[in-house]
C-alpha cells in the first residue's frame, strides 16, 4: 500500500490541499478561492466557518479526483496565513470574523500599547515592532473597543489552527505561528507573561505551543464525515506559511533568501540565531526548523495590488494579458512610479497609514505603463527589505522566487534587475503545501529531519534569471526616486488618515 501525505495551506485568497507519495512522487492538488471582506475603511477580515467549508470541499475533491484511498494517507499537516486573530466562545463558535494580517483597525491603539510596554521592551523581548494585524494587537483592540466580545472569548488561535482544530478536535499552535502573534517571548519560546499581564490579556485563552512536527492527534469522526479522510489519519501540528514555503523551496540554508510575491510579498531567510534590526524594520519569528529563526522583511502589499488593478481598474483583465502588456513596455514605465502601500506598509516604513500612489503620470502613459509601474513598485519594496537584511549582517548568496509572482517571467526578470542578483525560480509546485506535507512526513517519522526530507523531496530550481546590465543601470537611477516618494508624502498620508479615520 502506498504512503501518502497531505499538506493543507490556508492562504489569504484560497485554501489548497496537496497530496504526495514521496516514494513515487505522485501528487494531486485542489484549491478553492475566497475574498477578503472589507466592511469599512481599515478593516480586512474573513469568516472562519467559510475557511472550514472550503477546506473540507478541497479535501473531498482532491481525494475524489486522485482516487487515492484515504487509508493510504498517513498524516496531514498545515500551512497558514500568519498573525490573524481567531476568537472562540465556550461552545467553540467564532465570536466575530477574523481580523487578518492586513487589518488596520487597531492603528490608533498602537501608541497606547507602546506607552504600556515601551519600545525597548519590544526590541529586547519580542524582537519585533508592534504593528497592526498581529493577534496580540487585534486582541487588545477587541478588549478596548468590543469588551463584550472579549468577555465571551474562551480561546484564541491562529488561522491554520482553527482548521486543525476542526479536523482533529485539538487546539494547539506551533512556535513559528505563535511567534508571529507578538504574544510569545521570542527568546524563551513561551507565552510572554510580561506582555499579557501588562496589557490585561488573559493567558488562559492562549493555546498550547508545540513543535511544528508534533503529532497532536488524529482526524476526528466529524471531520472524517465532512472530508472523506480516514479517522485514524495522523494530524501533525504544522507551521506558518512563510516557513512552510521555505521548506517547500528547500530555502533552508543560511544565505538562501526566498522572495515571495503572493497576496503580500516578502524577503525572508533562515538564521541560526534570532537576528533582528535594531530599528525594528524587520520581523524575527521562530522557524519551523528546530534551532532556527525566520528573519523577514515583510511587505503588506503584493499580488493583492495586482488583483486590485485587474478587477477594479482593468475590468477583470486576466494576468496573462497583463503580463503581455507589461512586457511590451520599457523598463521604468517611462518615468511612471507606483507606491504599492495600499494596505499600509511594514518593512521598511512600519506605517499603517501609508497609501498607494501613482507618480509621474503623463498623457502618454497607458495601461501597460500602469501595470509595469505597479509590478516594479512591489519589487522596489522588496529591494528595501533585502537591503535591511543585508545591513544587519545576513549575506545573500542565493535568491529563490516563490508564490504566484514566480509564475511571471517578466516579474522574475524585474527582480533580477532591481535586486542586481541572480533569481532562481522554484521548481516545486504548491511550495507551502509541499512544506506542510514534508512536515507531516517528518512528524510521522518517515524522515529524520527537514534536511533529509528536503534533499529527498524538493526539486532543484527550474531556471535562473540573470540581471541585464542595461536594465540594472536604469533601475539604479530610478530606485532612489522611488525611495524619496514615501518620505515626501508621509505627512500627507497622516493628514488623510485624520480626515478618514478608521471607526
Largest pleated sheet: 7 strands, mixed
Give the helix tally. 17
How large is the share of residues in beta strands?
15-25%
CATH architecture of the domain at 4-242: 2-Layer Sandwich
Number of strands: 24
Given as residue ranges, the uncertain stretches (5+ residues, pLDDT < 50) are none
How is this structure best summarized?
The protein is an alpha/beta fold and 503 residues long.
What does this structure look like?
- Helix 13 packs across helix 14 and helix 15 packs across helix 16.
- This protein starts with a strand and ends with a helix.
- By secondary structure, it is of the alpha/beta class.
- The longest helix is centred in the C-terminal third of the chain and has 31 residues.
- A hairpin with a 4-residue loop joins strand 10 and strand 11.
- Among the domains are: 239 residues, ATPase, nucleotide binding domain (Nucleotidyltransferase, domain 5), CATH 3.30.420.40; 98 residues, ATPase, nucleotide binding domain (Nucleotidyltransferase, domain 5), CATH 3.30.420.40.
- Strands 1, 2, 3, 5, 13, 14 and 15 form a seven-stranded mixed β-sheet that branches. The chain has a seven-stranded mixed β-sheet with strand order 18-19-17-16-22-23-24. Strands 4-7 form a two-stranded antiparallel ribbon.
Amino acid at each position: 500500500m502506498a504512503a501518502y501525505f497531505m499538506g493543507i495551506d490556508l492562504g489569504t485568497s484560497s485554501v489548497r490541499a496537496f497530496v504526495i507519495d514521496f516514494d513515487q512522487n505522485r501528487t494531486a492538488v485542489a484549491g478553492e478561492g475566497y475574498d477578503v471582506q472589507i466592511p469599512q475603511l481599515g478593516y480586512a477580515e474573513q469568516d472562519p466557518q467559510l475557511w472550514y467549508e472550503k477546506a473540507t470541499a478541497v479535501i473531498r475533491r482532491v481525494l475524489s479526483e486522485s482516487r487515492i484511498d484515504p487509508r493510504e494517507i498517513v498524516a496531514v499537516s498545515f500551512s497558514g496565513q500568519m498573525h490573524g486573530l481567531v476568537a472562540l466562545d465556550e461552545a467553540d463558535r467564532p465570536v466575530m470574523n477574523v481580523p487578518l494580517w492586513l487589518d488596520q483597525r487597531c492603528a490608533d491603539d498602537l501608541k497606547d500599547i507602546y506607552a504600556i510596554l515601551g519600545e525597548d521592551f519590544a526590541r529586547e523581548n519580542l524582537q519585533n515592532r508592534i504593528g497592526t494585524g498581529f493577534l496580540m494587537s487585534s486582541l487588545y483592540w477587541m478588549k478596548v473597543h468590543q469588551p463584550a466580545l472579549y468577555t465571551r472569548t474562551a480561546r484564541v488561535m491562529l488561522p491554520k489552527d482553527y482548521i486543525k482544530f476542526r479536523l482533529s478536535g485539538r487546539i494547539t499552535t506551533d512556535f513559528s505561528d505563535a511567534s508571529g502573534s507578538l504574544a510569545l517571548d521570542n527568546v524563551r519560546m513561551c507565552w510572554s507573561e510580561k506582555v499579557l499581564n501588562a496589557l490585561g490579556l488573559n493567558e488562559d485563552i492562549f493555546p498550547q505551543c508545540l513543535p511544528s512536527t508534533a503529532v497532536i492527534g488524529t482526524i476526528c469522526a466529524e471531520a472524517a464525515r465532512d472530508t472523506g479522510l480516514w479517522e485514524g489519519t495522523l494530524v501533525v501540528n504544522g507551521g506558518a506559511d512563510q516557513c512552510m514555503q521555505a521548506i517547500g523551496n528547500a530555502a533552508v540554508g543560511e544565505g538562501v533568501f526566498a522572495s515571495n510575491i503572493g497576496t503580500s510579498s516578502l524577503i525572508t531567510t533562515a538564521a541560526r540565531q534570532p537576528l533582528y534590526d535594531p530599528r525594528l524594520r524587520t520581523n524575527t519569528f521562530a522557524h519551523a526548523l528546530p534551532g532556527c529563526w525566520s528573519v523577514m522583511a515583510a511587505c503588506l502589499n503584493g499580488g493583492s495590488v495586482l488583483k486590485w488593478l485587474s478587477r477594479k481598474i482593468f475590468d477583470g483583465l486576466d494576468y496573462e494579458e497583463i503580463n503581455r502588456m507589461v512586457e511590451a513596455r520599457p523598463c521604468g514605465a517611462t518615468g511612471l512610479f507606483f507606491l504599492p502601500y495600499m494596505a499600509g506598509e511594514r518593512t521598511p516604513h512600519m506605517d499603517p497609514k501609508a497609501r498607494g500612489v501613482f507618480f509621474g503620470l503623463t498623457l502618454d502613459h497607458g495601461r501597460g505603463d500602469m501595470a509595469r509601474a505597479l509590478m516594479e513598485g512591489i519589487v522596489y519594496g522588496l529591494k528595501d527589505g533585502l537591503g535591511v537584511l543585508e545591513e544587519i549582517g545576513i549575506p545573500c548568496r542565493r535568491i529563490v522566487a516563490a508564490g504566484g509572482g514566480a509564475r511571471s517571467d517578466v516579474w522574475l526578470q524585474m527582480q533580477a534587475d532591481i535586486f542586481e542578483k541572480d533569481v532562481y525560480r522554484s521548481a516545486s509546485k504548491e511550495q507551502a503545501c509541499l512544506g506542510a506535507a514534508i512536515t507531516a512526513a517528518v512528524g510521522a517519522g518517515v524522515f529524520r529531519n527537514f534536511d533529509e526530507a528536503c534533499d529527498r523531496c524538493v526539486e532543484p530550481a527550474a531556471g535562473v534569471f540573470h540581471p541585464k546590465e542595461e536594465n540594472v543601470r536604469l533601475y539604479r537611477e530610478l530606485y532612489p526616486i522611488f525611495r524619496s516618494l514615501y518620505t515626501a508624502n508621509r505627512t500627507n498620508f497622516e493628514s488623510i488618515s485624520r480626515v478618514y479615520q478608521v471607526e
